[in-house]
Amino acid sequence: EKTHFRQLMERCPLQRMWKELFESSDFAKRHAEIQEFNRQHRWRKRGLAQLPTKFGISFTAKFMNQAGALVHVYTDGTVLLTHGGTEMGQGLHTKICQIAARAFGIPMEAVAFRETGTDTVPNASPTAASASSDIYGMATLNACEKIKSRLQPYLAKFPDFKSAVNAAYMDRVDLSAHGFYATPGIGYDWSLPEDQRGKPFNYFTFGAACSEVEIDVLTGDMRILRSDILMDVGNSLNPAIDIGQIEGAFTQGFGWATIEETVWGCSEFSWLKPGVCFTRGPGTYKIPSFNDTPVDLRVTLVKDSANPNAIHSSRAVGEPPFFLGSSAFFAARAAIASAREDTGAAPHDYFVVDLPLTPERIRLACNDPLTSRFASSRPRPSIFV
């Protein structure tokens, strides 16, 4: 249960998730159906693949694991807050407002957010590494708890939050607080022996995905017929946001694994100057579009997997599902293997496919008499950018 850097994967649900996904995706039944489909079709092939993932949550630079927040409570019972995180469509501000509303026991409509700025919360760490909900949520909760402790005598006397706040104000109680959070128990020192180096990650977010794809052997075109994703986000802060993040990360992941090829000038590309990047815009660098998304996409959140290391026992979700998109890559490889068997290759014959597995690479890998003449003319990627 230890990683290669000797960190114990505590409360790891991957074995349970693997079995649950295998059953919920009907893997065995569909695998048999795909084999029958491939026997009956020469120019269209299908493949199925299931894989797990784990993603460590924390900045590996220890000093970056800190966060601040500022919370004000007003006499009308409303709350204004801000923190050091940046909203970029991932729902961070929504989650933070939920945390404040839950802390004070008030409706979310009573909580307002002031946009992030260094004049309110200085020295913020980057909004990155999927850790923002964790650290800024805890900083916000810290500020709310400070105010709530001051309000405690009044909350015990009065029936509602607004009345308690007004009574506290009349008694000259401070209704504003700065919150701060530093992730405890992490740090990694390379100079120490392996078993003494420390703990680089606060915890791990786990996931598993099963994808079925169909390829056109004559053109290399590929479509994802179905993808089942099972993700452990602990006690989700907001399931709707988290499912959207999973869908987005998965889409970005299969784009990275099957579409998004970078082309640089080299000796094999005489039409491009050495060192020049050809794929500099959407005309040449292809990202997933509407028609690339799985025909059938199913996302499920793991139940009964509370995470005591993060805010309200949740788990971070932004980047962890990204690698699951490569399930489409391995499913496509299985489909290619079936196509190669039809040309005389032995079952389970070894062959190499590179990432991203573009239609061109799929077509060349199918190894029929036509493509075998050109299979070595395409340079292999030397670096992922």
List low-pLDDT spans.
none
Cross-sheet strand order for the largest sheet: 1-8-9-10
How far apart the termini lie comes to: 32 Å
Helix content: 25-40%
Percent of sequence in beta strands: 15-25%
Q: How big is the Rg?
A: 26 Å
Report the count of strand segments. Answer: 10
Taking the sheet with the most strands, its summary is: 4 strands, mixed
Helix-strand string? HHEEEHEHHEEEEEHEHH
Bulk shape: elongated
The helix-and-strand class reads alpha+beta
Number of helices, where a helix is a run of at least 4 consecutive DSSP H or I residues: 8
Task: Output mean pLDDT.
Answer: 94
Describe the protein in words.
The strands form three sheets. The protein has a four-stranded mixed β-sheet with strand order 1-8-9-10, sandwiched between helices. A four-stranded mixed β-sheet has the order 4-3-2-5. The chain contains eight helices and ten strands. With 385 residues, the protein is α+β, with helices and mostly antiparallel strands. The mean pLDDT is 94. The longest helix is centred in the middle third of the chain and has 26 residues.
